[in-house]
Amino acid sequence: MSVNSHTRASQKRSFATKSYERHLRASSASSETSLDLEDSVGSLNGLTITGSHEKQILKDVEIAQAHNDRAVLIQRVRQTCLSKGSHGIQDLGIMFRHLDIDYNKRITFQELKDKLKDYGMSCSDIDLNILFCHLDKDGSGGIDFVELMEALRPPMKQCRIDVINEAFDIVDSGENGTIDMDEIRVVYAANARRHPKFISGEWTEEQTLRHFLDSLDTPGSPDGKVTRQEFMNYYAGVSVTVDDDCYFDMMMRSVYGLPAVSSRTKNAAKTAK
C-alpha cells in the first residue's frame, strides 16, 4: 500500500470513529431527553410542571381557589346571620336598608365592611374585596341589595322550593306576582286568630295580619306587597330551623291550606302517563 493510500485509509478510520462517537453522544442525549420527558410527565401528575401548560394550570387553580374563597366567605356571613335565628338574614338586611337613604338599593364596600362588623363579623380587607367583587357583578362599585340577600339565602332542596312556590301561587289569587293584605287575609286569617298576641287581646286581627305581611316583605322598607322572591327569602330562613323535609312540607300545607298532593306532582304524574 502506498503512503497516500495508507493516509487515506487512516483518515477514513478517523472519520468513522468520530462519526460513531457523535452517534453515541446523540443517542445519549436522546436518552437523557427521554428521561427528562418522563420526569416532566411525573411532575405534571404532581402539579409541579413547567412549560407551556403552566400558565393555564395555574389559572385554573386560581379560578377554583377564588370560587372556593367566595363560597367560604358567603357561608361565613350566612352562618353568622343564622346563628341569630331564622330572621338573622332579614335583620342584616334591615341594617343595610337603613343605610340606603337615597333608595338606590346599592351597598358600597365601606358600608359592607362597617355593617358586617356591627353585626359581629370581622373580615380582612382581602376577604371583603373577594366577596365584594363577586357580588358587584357590573363593576359599578356597589352591591345590589336584592342580589346580596339572594346570595345569603340558605340553599334548599327542590322539594322545599316547590312547596314554597305552591304556597305563593295559592295566596297570589290575582296572579300578578305579588301578595297584598287582602290576599293574605283570605288564607291566613285562621292562623292569625291563633296568634298569642291576638288571643291575649294585644293585637287585633288586622294588626296580626299586618305583622305577618311585614315579616314577609323586604326588611326595613315594607311596601305592603310581597314578591315571590321576598316570600322565598323569608321561608329560606324558616327552612334552616326545620331538619325534616316531610315536616316542612306538612307545615307549609297546614299554614296555607294546600292540598295533600301538590298540583305540580299531579301534573307530573299526568305527563308521565
From TrEMBL:
Residues 1-23 are annotated as: Disordered. Keywords: Calcium, Metal-binding, Repeat. Residues 1-17 have a biased composition (Polar residues). GO terms for molecular function: calcium ion binding. Coiled coil: none annotated. Residues 87-122, 123-158, 159-194 form the EF-hand domain. SMART domains: EFh. It comes from the Eukaryota. InterPro entries: Ca-bind (IPR051581), EF-hand-dom_pair (IPR011992), EF_hand_dom (IPR002048). This is Calcyphosin-like protein isoform X2. The gene is LOC106056045.
